[in-house]
Amino acid sequence: MTWVSPLTGLILAAAVIPPLILLYFLKLRRRTQPIACTLLWKKSIEDLQANAPFQKLRRNILLLLQLLALILLILSVMQPQVQAGQQTGGKTVIIIDNSASMSATDGPDGMTRLEQAKQLAKQRVEAMYRGGLFSRSPGETMVIAFSDRAEIYSRFSSARQQLLAAIDRIQPTHGETRIAEALQLSRAYTTNVVDIMGEARPTGEPAHIELFSDGNITDLDDQVLRPGESMTFHALGTDDADNVAINAISVERPFDRPTAVAVFVSLLNFNQREVRCDVQLSVDGTARGIREVQIQPARLDPATGELLPGRNNVAFAPFEQPRGAVIEVANLRQDALMADNVAQLVVPPPRQLNVALVRSNYRILEAALDPEGMRLQRLDVITLERFEELAAENALDQYDVVVFDNRAPTSLPPGRYLSFGATPPVEGLNEYGQGGTQLILTTRHEHPVMQNVMLDDLRIAEMTLLQPGDDVQVLVEATGGPAMIAVSRGSFHLIHVTFDPLASSWPFKRSFINFIYNAIEHLGHIGEAVTSEGLRPGEVLTARLPASAQDIELLTPDGTTHRLTPADPSQLSWGPLRLSGPHLLRWTEPGVTGSRRQSRAYAVNLLSETEGNLAVAESIDIGQDSVTGTRADASTHTPLWPWAIALCLGLLMVEWWVYHRKAYF
Amino acid sequence: MASFGTTTTPKPKRVDELIDSKLMAKLDQVDVMSRKIFSGKLQGERRSKKRGMSVEFADYRHYVHGDDLRFVDWNIYARLDKLFIKMFLEEEDLSLIIALDTSSSMDWGNPNKLVFCQRLAMALGYIGLVNHNRVSLYAFSDGGLRPLPNLRGMRRTQEMGSWLLNQQTGGASNFDDAMRGIALTRQGKGVMVVLSDFLYKEGYEKGLRYLSGGGYDTFCMQVLAPEEIDPGKAGLSGDLRLTDIEDDDVAEVTVSAGLLRRYKENLDAYCGKLREFCVRRGMMHLTIDTATDLNVLLLDYLRKRGLLR
User: Fold this and answer.
1) Whole-model pTM?
2) Which string of DSSP letters, residue by residue, matches A150-209?
3) A32 shares contact with chain B (CB less than 8 Å)
4) Is A173 among the domain residues?
5) Of A47, A55, A665, the CB nearest to B266
């Protein structure tokens, strides 16, 4: 038996027991009762006192009963517990949070929160299935782990070893904490089973949920406990866990120096004190520079009570990096959560594009697509017939973008196209005539192609009128309808200008060159793994590998190699990503590279403000229920205080009975 | 128990509330009997051993100096020239004395002890008056002895009832002085009934000794309320400060089964001792519960015990 708060009980005992005994030593406040004659009563009292030496003690049975009741109350305040199994049968769902914040190493002996959670959960299972004096049938238990996705590790089972093994299998992830899916999964096995009449009905009583988490759950507001459901929240971690996180990383190649790289990092301080830390920049594993950063302390928002972390940004001066590289920024300061101390980005080499121009009789586009001015690898000017031949030979892969200058092929295979004038044969582009003079009405400036493209003074003499389909994005709307549209369907991407530039004032505008540059860059780099934005845990990795790629495998940061067999290597996807850090995709391409293995790196960064905050929630509000967290491993004990309270009530009833039945002793 | 011992029934205010006509009709057939002096009954009168003035001749005797000349038989003197005194069988009525304790302790209990005693005294007195006995009543408390002597005949019934109703309780009983006073003023012989609870802290022995001198056939009727006979059953419980309503004496008790048992033992012993004291002196002792029905008491119980016939 253990005691949760023995000191409180002892203080209480010292405070109340002596006064009670003192009160009994003091004279009783007696009720006055007139009687005819005290003669016989006095004689009786004298007799009793004379004949019963222990009369005082015997008369004080009430005192004894009251003392016993008081002691039981004090015992209940001290909260005795015994090691015992679960009190109730039924179903229990053990939900363990394995999100990024659970990797914080603020447990005893440097244990992570997840390791603590697993240990506690195993103790819980041991306690439930061990049996004991106060235990009954423990029922069945299910094990679910969740971060931004939930995964069932064990369905409802009463096999202790199976449950323990399932808990052992839970691995940390670097995802965010979202419990909705976990709750849905747990309910899927207890409720809403459709019977033969087609009506949903519960399959049994609602489950009791044992949640092991640090309580930083982002989607709690949307959740409610269903009627009959109950929850025990085991809060893990300490409030003073030290953490400084890299919140954002960005890499850019300056426009004027395409071979150089500039790195920007944002850091968050979740400690309520100012910190200094060294931030190291590495390129392909080689340190290139260290900057010392001072970050303001976090403070509590007085309005919401939320922790507002201190912020600081670091910019590393541009440096020459003509090749592709893995840029890594590391916060060298040791803290509880290491996963958010490193952020990487894979910077591709400043790849130059191969462009084919299906020309017309005019050379205006050929002039605009000057390979030197546009920084193109190659510009092939081909005829429409040559394009048709290449398409038939399936040899269009050599071009990143094909530009049609007022030419329309008979069909467009998957690829990336920029076309002017003649309407390409694409579903969703329905011609219905020719329009006269046009003015520009609206422009979608947020589209990457429309950056720095000002069309206000554009005049169009003639334009093909189009009725766009549902999935056609209109970039520029003229008085007669869409003037520029974008179509994106899987691996088919098209940007189409519905008028011939020669039939407008556009070739004389700066926006014409800007538009062509933007469109070529945008289409040419679509689907490339990383430009300046990294992936995040929980997202899906997508890659466009050559169609002939074979023997594809992915190396994750924990050293595991996953063999991938996609149906179409040009549309490869894998996920969700579980861990942050560099992921390496490797493949061979027979014939082309002489079976040499090729690889491509992908950076996955935590970059989450929610997960970086390691403060432990004292309680969680789920719907209208507030579940207070238990820090101790209380779930492995059966509290005895309800028994003490019940005994105390029983004693009080006996005391009342004795008092009114004139103390039959 | 706030109502413990408190009288809840209203006290009688009229004579017919003391004794109803049905009981009176039944009592018409009953007479007071003395075990000591008289035996046999003449209707309305009693034959006495003592010769005296009467119409019934008993004997002659010689005249001696000092005899009343009115009883000289002059015819005998004329014939024999000797003075003879005619002696008649004196008709002597029974003297019934009822002594009523009106101390404060009597005005307690449910049913009330005093009211019970008033009714009993009224009934006994009525029997006496119906049978042409000389009925005397005495009320005693520390206020002194209040007599209503020598009532005779049914016409005095109303007067006796009014006197009984007018008796107020107060103070201690002062039993010794009262008994002494009654003994000193007694006339002739007869039956004496003492109605009291006999719970005297100063003791009853001295007072009763005055009555045991002779002449009286004494009945000590110890009237106790149910609350005195079995206080536990009557609801006495808790930690109490018992206050004597006569002298404000206090006894602090915690009522328990043991205490109640001890009280009963003491009560039994007290009553037993009183009974033994009375028996040794030729007196009759009766313990009467005020819850006892008066009809049963008069027509059954007191007949069996020899007070009535």
Assistant:
1) 0.47
2) EEEEEEEE--HHHHHHHHHH----------HHHHHHHHHTTS-EE-TTS-EE-SSSPPEE
3) yes
4) yes
5) A47
Encode pLDDT of A13-69 as tens digits: 888 888 888 877 766 678 888 898 888 888 888 766 655 544 455 567 778 888 889
Contacts of B227 in chain A (CB under 8 A): 35
Of A45, A659, A665, the CB nearest to B253: A45
ipTM: 0.82
Q: Is B145 on the interface with A (CB under 8 A)?
A: no
Output the six-digit token pair for A419.
């076309």
Q: Are residues A520 and A558 in the same domain?
A: no
Residue B255 has pLDDT above 90, yes or no: no
Identify the pLDDT of residue B3.
73
pLDDT tier at A494 (50, 70, 90 boundaries)? Answer: very high
- In a domain, residue A615? The reply is no
Q: How many CB atoms lie within 10 A of CB B302?
A: 26
Interface contact flag, B239 A30, Cβ < 8 Å: yes
My answer on whether A372 and A518 are in the same domain is: yes
Task: Residue A421: give its domain's CATH number.
Answer: 3.40.50.880
* pLDDT for the residue A634: 43
Number of inter-chain CB pairs under 8 A, A vs B: 109
CB contact under 8 A, A36 and B225: yes
Flag whether A494 is in a domain. Answer: yes
Domain end among A313, A344, A375: A344
Q: Which residues contact B44 (CB under 8 A, 6 or more apart)?
A: B131, B132
Q: Tell me the residues of chain B between 269 and 298 that have a Cβ less than 8 Å away from chain A.
A: 270
Cα A634 to Cα A626: distance, rounded to the nearest angstrom: 18
Q: Do A503 and A448 fall within a single domain?
A: yes
In terms of domains, do A16 and A112 share one? no
CB-based contact, A40 to chain B, within 8 Å = yes
Instruction: Provide the token pair at A531.
Output: 């430009």
**Is any Cβ of chain B less than 8 angstroms from the Cβ of A38?**
yes
User: In the prediction, which pLDDT does B161 show?
Assistant: 93
- pLDDT grade for B2, boundaries at 50, 70 and 90: very low
Q: How far is B146 from chain A (nearest CA, A)?
A: 22
Q: Are residues A187 and A286 in the same domain?
A: no
Same domain, A76 and A89: no
Kindly indicate the confidence band of residue A578, based on its pLDDT and cuts at 50, 70 and 90: confident
Is B1's pLDDT higher than 60? no
Chain-chain contact of A33 with B243 (C-beta, under 8 angstroms): yes
Cis peptide before A349 (omega within 30 of 0): no
Total domains, chain A? 5
pLDDT reported for residue B8? 84
In a 13 Å sphere around the CA of B253, the CA atoms on its Cβ side amount to 31
Residue A249 and residue A306 share a domain: yes
List all residues 6 or more positions away from A293 whose beta carbon is below 8 Å from its beta carbon.
A267, A276, A277, A278, A279, A312, A314
Q: pLDDT tens across A547-573, in order?
A: 778 889 999 888 889 998 888 887 888
Contact A34 B108 (CB under 8 A): yes
Tell me the domains of chain B and their CATH numbers.
15-38+93-304 (3.40.50.410), 48-91 (no CATH)
Using the Cβ of B243 and the Cβ atoms of chain A, whether some distance falls under 8 Å is answered with yes
In three state form, how does the secondary structure of A511-550 look? HHHHHHHHHHHHHHHCCCCCCCCCECCCCCEEECCCCCCE
- Where does a domain end: A466, A495, A525? A525
Structure tokens at A84: 């015992």
Residue A534 domain flag:
no
Which tokens belong to A541? 């990795």
Indicate which CATH number applies to the domain containing A87.
Answer: 3.40.50.410
Same-domain check for residues A164 and A153: yes
The enclosing domain of A308 has a CATH number of 2.60.40.10
Min distance B254 CA to chain A CA atoms (Å): 8
Closest listed residue to residue A357, CA positions, set A365, A345, A349, A348: A365
Residue A33, domain extent:
2-80+645-660
Task: Name which of A31, A40, A665 is nearest B267 (Cβ-Cβ).
Answer: A40
Is B252 in CB contact (< 8 Å) with chain A? Answer: yes
